[in-house]
Write a structure and sequence with these properties.
The chain has eleven helices and 35 strands. It is an alpha+beta fold. The protein has a domain of 250 residues: Rossmann fold, CATH 3.40.50.1820. An eight-stranded mixed sheet has the order 28-29-31-30-32-33-34-35, with helices on both faces.
Length: 653
């Protein structure tokens, strides 16, 4: 453990002072270095006794994360600062008034070990802020399961024995659970999971109450409870692995623990929140249902120390994150904090002390990359921002829209609108996945592009989750639609913007990452071309090669989804000869999810047919955003803007 030199803060302060006036000029884009910064502040948490506030900070543009710990009664005083050199702090939790638990990671190899086997390994550690002592626990891959507030200096952690090369969904995979003594480092086995019953959840007191398993002989996922009988697990529900429906237990009724709160389709197209009677083993009342979108999850009481099991509301994604509260007190508190936070959009209490009187409020919105506030002794003060160089009035508004695809299907989308007058040069930016749920509140890449004058469309094309089973399954139910109807959804969104007078049809491009990169490659070879260029990041160029990485790790509905999707969809590498617009191909050198060989093979195919393209490898970058450091982001953004303005020729006039 090392103390942090205060001079690095002087550097960052000078960076702010020197660069800020440049970005304040009207209609002048921010320097791309601004966008390349990793989160300057995040993970802001108050201690259980309310006496200390801790946060993760990256003090310089290419620095490593550190933890700062403040006295809440003297926030102006210099904080206690620690790092975990040579390991990187990724997250922390308050385990008690004086002890912090940290997740650490370190790059341990220069090349990936294979599909989904990256270059990082992680452990957990504890920090005693009184003794200023850091202790690392050497179990690779361990993750914190419970902070055990009623047991001082004890936590529960788990890990997946034998790694994660498993055909079963992560929520059902067998885990091993230990109680760890943070002082001595000794551990006590609580439960050794097995396939039939191996993924366990613990209630607020640290008692196991829910478990999941897989019956391999029947091909069924199985849920168990230990509420009606504290000593033995009781089976409550089974779901065939071939089913596309959802059954997710999100909590229980504290007044009647025999009622579980379950997110499920229960025979409907959209996921709703239901009561499930574990004695009768069947659904009873519907708590909350919608006709337009799925229920995405439940909210819990803001004081996890005193009310760890209290469900207070449900949330869903549409034009942002929307919450419906189940009790008047939570609703009133939410309305109150929204009224005092500037640019309030997605505003919530993210940390609270045991007394409930001191709390951390976090806000995120189209005009706020993420800001943190401390309410302590009746006074509200701003702690900081994820991106302090970005001013609210220089950021772009995000609008939720819906349009029709050419076959009449309704496609939801998010539109980030630059300053100025339309028609704008426009970029469609499909999300990765493709089978994920996306909500756009503040999207750094979209905001960066909009700040440089580009209109950005993020369509929730068929296959996107959150809009019901039919919308999701339409991507593969009639054969894989990658390159076909899924691509039409993106093109039709751009044509809709042209019709509305928002997009210039002579200045349009596509940019995506992962599946979005695949979509960009598909777009580059489409016969009915509407784009002037494409930028493909971490793109799947050979679907058969990609699916072969995990073909034998899948079962049931997941196998049908993936094999049909990729097996019947268009393969970009087979259509390299048809590429008819300039291409920029970007890939991380240690991408574990879509290995670099995808880009290398596609590059050779383009060379064979003498196609116009540029190629960029981000050295040391993996597939995921948390491995894109300042130098990666800077190189990525500079190459994109240069390519769009010069090679593509769609620069904002």
């Amino acid at each position: 453990m090392k103390k942090i030199n205060y001079n690095i803060y002087v550097y960052f302060s000078l960076l702010v002072i020197l660069l800020l006036p440049l970005a304040s000029l009207a209609n002048t884009p921010y320097p791309l270095e601004y966008w390349a910064l990793r989160d300057v502040i995040r993970n802001v948490q108050i201690s259980p006794d309310g006496k200390h506030l801790a946060l993760i900070k990256i003090p310089t543009k290419d620095g490593s994360p550190i933890i700062e710990i403040y006295n809440t009664n003297a926030m102006e005083e210099k904080p206690y600062r620690v790092n975990s050199d040579p390991m990187e702090i990724t997250r922390f939790y308050w385990a008690s008034n004086d002890v912090i638990i940290m997740n650490l990671r370190q790059q341990v190899r220069n090349k990936i070990d294979g599909f989904n086997q990256g270059v990082y390994e992680g452990i957990i550690a504890s920090l005693d802020i009184k003794k200023k002592k850091l202790k690392k626990y050497d179990h690779l891959g361990a993750r914190v399961e419970h902070l055990l507030p009623e047991k001082k200096n004890k936590i529960i952690y788990s890990f997946f024995p034998g790694g994660d090369d498993n055909k079963i969904k992560e929520a059902f995979r067998p885990q091993t659970y230990y109680e760890l003594d943070l002082k001595t480092g000794s551990k006590k086995l609580i439960l050794r999971g097995k396939l039939a019953l191996g993924a366990v959840e613990f209630d607020g007191k640290g008692s196991p109450w829910l478990a999941r398993g897989f019956d391999i002989s029947e091909g069924e996922y199985v849920w168990y409870e230990r509420v009606t009988n504290k000593k033995e697990w009781q089976e409550i529900y089974r779901l065939s692995e071939d089913s596309f429906e959802t059954f997710e237990v999100d909590g229980f009724d504290e007044k009647n623990p025999e009622i579980f709160f379950v997110r499920a389709h229960n025979g409907k197209d959209k996921i709703g929140l239901w009561e499930f009677n574990i004695v009768k083993k069947k659904f009873s009342e519907a708590i909350y249902l919608r006709k337009d979108v799925d229920v995405a999850g439940v909210t819990y009481h803001s004081n996890e120390w005193t009310n760890p099991d209290t469900v207070t509301g449900v949330y869903y994604y549409k034009d942002g994150v929307k919450t419906e509260y189940l009790d008047a007190i939570s609703s009133a508190m939410a309305n109150q904090i929204q009224g005092v936070i500037p640019n309030s959009e997605f505003t919530r209490i993210t940390s609270r002390d045991r007394s409930g009187n001191s709390l951390v409020i976090t806000n995120t919105g189209s005009n706020d990359p993420g800001s943190f506030y401390l309410l302590h002794k009746g006074k509200l003060r701003k702690i900081g921002s994820r991106q302090p160089l970005l001013e609210a009035d220089q950021l772009s508004d995000v609008r939720y829209i819906e349009y029709k695809s050419r076959d009449g299907k309704n496609i939801p989308a998010y539109l980030t609108i630059p300053n100025g007058k339309p028609p704008f040069p426009a970029i469609v930016m499909p999300h990765g996945g493709p089978f994920v749920s996306e909500v756009v509140i503040y999207d750094e890449w979209a905001q960066m592009l909009a700040n440089n004058g580009y209109l950005v469309l993020q369509p929730q094309y068929r296959g996107s989750m959150g809009y019901g089973l039919e919308h999701y399954k339409s991507a593969f139910e009639d054969g894989g639609q990658g390159g076909y109807k899924m691509q039409d959804d993106k093109d039709d969104g751009m044509l809709y913007l042209v019709k509305e007078g928002l997009a210039d049809p002579e200045r349009m491009a596509i940019f995506g990452w992962s599946y979005g990169g695949y979509a960009a490659l598909i777009a580059a070879s489409r016969e009915d071309q509407i784009y002037q260029c494409a930028i493909a990041g971490a793109a799947v160029s050979d679907p058969q090669m990609q699916v072969n990485y995990y073909r034998y790790r899948m079962r049931g509905a997941q196998k049908e989804e993936q094999l049909t999707m990729w097996g019947d969809s268009i393969s970009p590498i087979k259509h390299a000869a048809d590429v008819n617009i300039p291409l920029l191909i970007i890939h991380g050198s240690v991408d574990q999810r879509v290995p670099l060989i995808h880009a290398e093979k596609y590059k050779k195919a383009l060379d064979k047919y003498e196609k116009n393209y540029k190629y960029l490898v981000l050295e040391g970058a993996d597939h995921f955003s948390n491995t894109l450091f300042f130098n990666h982001q800077k190189e990525l953004f500079e190459s994109m803007i240069s390519y769009l303005n010069e090679d593509c020729g769609i620069k904002n006039i």
